[in-house]
From TrEMBL:
GO cellular component: endoplasmic reticulum membrane; plasma membrane
Keywords carried by this UniProt record: Cell membrane, Fatty acid metabolism, Ligase, Lipid metabolism, Lipid transport, Membrane, Nucleotide-binding, Transmembrane, Transmembrane helix, Transport
EC category name: ligase
Domain AMP-binding enzyme C-terminal: 496-572
E.C. number: 6.2.1.3
An annotated Gene Ontology molecular function: long-chain fatty acid transmembrane transporter activity
AMP-dependent synthetase/ligase domain span: 61-419
Reaction catalysed by this enzyme: tetracosanoate + ATP + CoA = tetracosanoyl-CoA + AMP + diphosphate; a long-chain fatty acid + ATP + CoA = a long-chain fatty acyl-CoA + AMP + diphosphate; a very long-chain fatty acid + ATP + CoA = a very long-chain fatty acyl-CoA + AMP + diphosphate
Transmembrane helix keyword on record: yes
Pfam family, one: AMP-binding
Annotated protein name in UniProt: long-chain-fatty-acid--CoA ligase
Membrane topology, as annotated: Multi-pass membrane protein
Length: 620
């Protein structure tokens, strides 16, 4: 019997070692999932109260805990938790008494990044109102569309946008939409200045009765999609969704001791919901920047002793492309949280700026599914597991690259793909994992839904994204449906081609897309390129590089040189207009090049070559 006890005791010691050997991330997976479940349970309990315990209550609890702690650092300005509380109290009263806002209504903001954005948001939350966050780059028709989308009758902006506002003011007046400047004086007739009324309002706490009807499903903010194609849609962010997104920082180990650097636009979910919301959720200090600046980034991090940075899209590449400095590693940054970093950039970022823990995640503003890479696995956007799939059911499905739609079997159901294959990510819509949809036209929301996916009557949210999960459970983003194209019977993922081309020494940025060619099925590869300053385009070098690292069907046949690539406010490449213009010499003034196999080089696209392609005399 003693021998049996000895064996059992030995097994107890061996189990963790064996687990680490064969399943190296199992304990971390369990820890993160249990942490997520605890946060979900805690916030769900709070949201069930009447009125619901929401983000504004989390903020107020932090005000009570550390009123004098800095919440927002903006240039030389310092705003403590108590400062923001008092300012939001004043704004809340002015919104009620001067503007006439009532609980449940929406106010649209057309503002640049500043502390104002934060206390206006909290002010609206204190009186049970929603905030519609409009991209401050919007103009004319797009601006009017955004204001109308959320049924807002109030627009708050500043005299900085005087020309833009006056351009649309007649249309706004016709629709009964009132405009206020957040200033002491108004330079525009018919637009009232509101700052004076806010300053003269009481700083006393706003009674909780002013938001008595708020529930977990009440809208907190409207965040507009990036609008890479068509007019932007307003995603509904309810109170429950807001807490989920804001808790990502906690999931990544960010604490109240951290100083978080947010140079991202607050009209976007990464800046407002995660940057500001996440800072409030953990009780940290947030360094807010008016806009992202490569030259000021690390100086800001040193100045404010930043410990956590946020990134999206190509921002990390911009930092890596900046001239190297002796003090590149002289900073206190220990974590980076965001999405959109490419594998080669990830490696270069760590090599150059030191051992920073990168938490790359996957998710969309309106999506009901997300992943976080908490292991540091380079290139992955998260981890998958059976338990996670039980908590938030999702599938990777076979899809048709030409239509972007999932492939269905004879019974009409979708077909899950095997591990290691690329598939369309869809997430099941349940009571605990809902899809709130978009404001306005219900058809916009319905287009994102898939019915009868695995069984009759089920509903899934279609992310429109192509992902791959390897045999270890790591999740990799591959491309977006619509960006992926088919050529010569093969599927081409634009992100993979971009990853290869950006390692060419004279290329600063690249945007890959597929274009139609007369007489050919599918779309052929084309790349818009921004050259590094002072370096010329070398068609021979690019040809050799593409031939060495890309399969034949994925090599771009056309190159377009641009001074700067067009991106959204969150640095996503815009492809729509590029696809539309294709390689049409009559429509494009930028230099164009063609892959000439006989010359083993990309050569200037001449009218003669263009005609031979159009007349199907040129082999492709």
């Amino acid at each position: 019997m003693p021998d049996l006890y000895t064996v059992l005791l030995g097994l107890l010691f061996l189990l963790p070692l064996l687990g680490n050997l064969f399943f190296p991330h199992v304990w971390l997976d369990m820890k993160k999932l249990l942490g997520t479940m605890y946060l979900g349970y805690k916030y769900n309990r709070g949201l069930q109260r009447k009125p619901a315990f929401t983000m504004v209550d989390i903020f107020l609890a932090k005000v009570q805990k550390h009123p004098a702690k800095p919440l927002i650092l903006f240039g030389d300005e310092v705003y403590t938790y108590q400062d923001i509380d008092r300012l939001s109290n004043q704004a809340a009263r002015a919104f009620q008494s001067q503007v006439g806002l009532k609980e449940g209504e929406t106010l649209a903001v057309f503002l640049q990044n500043s502390p104002v954005y934060v206390w206006v948001w909290l002010a609206l939350a204190k009186i049970g109102c929603a905030m519609s966050c409009i991209n401050y780059n919007a103009r004319s028709k797009i601006l009017l569309h955004a204001i109308r989308s959320c049924d807002s009758k109030i627009l708050l902006t500043t005299p900085d946008f005087k020309t833009t506002i006056e351009d649309v003011l007649p249309s706004l007046r016709k629709e009964g939409i009132r405009v206020f400047y957040l200033s002491d004086n108004s330079p525009t007739e018919g637009v009232e200045a509101l700052l004076g009324q806010i300053k003269s309002s009481s700083t006393d706490p706003v009674p909780i009765s002013f938001r008595a009807s708020i529930t977990s499903k009440s809208t907190s903010v409207y965040i507009f999609t990036s609008g890479t194609t068509g007019l932007p849609k307003a995603a509904i962010i309810n109170q429950s969704r807001l807490l989920r997104v804001a808790s990502v920082f906690s999931f990544c180990g960010v604490s109240s001791k951290d100083i978080i650097y947010t140079p991202l636009p607050l009209y976007h979910s990464a800046g407002l919901l995660l940057g500001i919301g996440g800072s409030l959720e953990v009780g940290a200090t947030c360094v807010l920047k008016s806009k992202f600046s490569v030259s000021q980034f690390w100086d800001d991090c040193r100045r404010y002793r930043v410990s956590v940075i946020q990134y999206v899209g190509e921002t990390m590449r911009y930092l890596c492309n900046a001239p190297q400095k002796e003090n590149d590693r002289d900073h206190s940054v220990r974590k980076a949280c965001g999405n959109g970093i490419r594998m080669e950039v990830w490696k270069e970022f760590l090599r150059r700026f030191g051992s920073i823990q990168i938490y790359e995640f996957y998710g969309a503003t309106e999506s009901n599914i997300g992943f976080v890479n908490y292991t540091g696995k380079v290139g992955a956007v998260g981890r998958s597991s059976l338990l996670l799939q039980k908590l938030t059911p999702y599938e990777l499905l076979q899809y048709d690259p030409d239509t972007g739609e999932p492939v269905r079997n004879k019974k009409g159901y979708c077909i899950p793909i095997a591990p290691g294959e690329t598939g369309l990510l869809v997430a099941k819509i349940t009571n605990s994992n809902p899809f709130a949809g978009y404001a306005g036209d219900r058809q916009k929301s319905e287009k994102k839904l898939l019915q009868d996916v695995l069984k009759k009557g089920d509903y899934y949210f279609n992310t429109g994204d192509l992902l791959r999960i390897d045999h270890e459970g790591f999740v990799y983003f591959q491309d977006r449906v619509g960006d992926t194209f088919r050529w010569k019977g093969e599927n081409v993922a634009t992100t993979e081609v971009e990853e290869i081309l950006t390692t060419v020494k004279f290329i600063q940025e690249v945007n890959v897309y597929g274009v139609s060619v007369p007489g050919h099925e599918g779309r052929i590869g084309m790349a818009a390129i921004q050259l590094k300053e002072g370096l010329p385009f070398d068609g021979g070098e690019l040809y050799r590089h593409a031939k060495e690292y890309l399969p034949k069907y994925a090599i771009p046949h056309f190159i377009r040189i641009q001074k700067a690539l067009e991106v959204t406010g969150t640095f996503k490449h815009i492809k729509g207009q590029l696809v539309k213009e294709g390689f049409d010499l009559a429509a494009i003034s930028d230099p164009l090049f063609f892959l000439d196999e006989s010359e083993k080089c990309y050569v200037p696209l001449t009218q003669k070559i263009y005609n031979s392609i159009a007349e199907q005399r040129q082999a492709l």
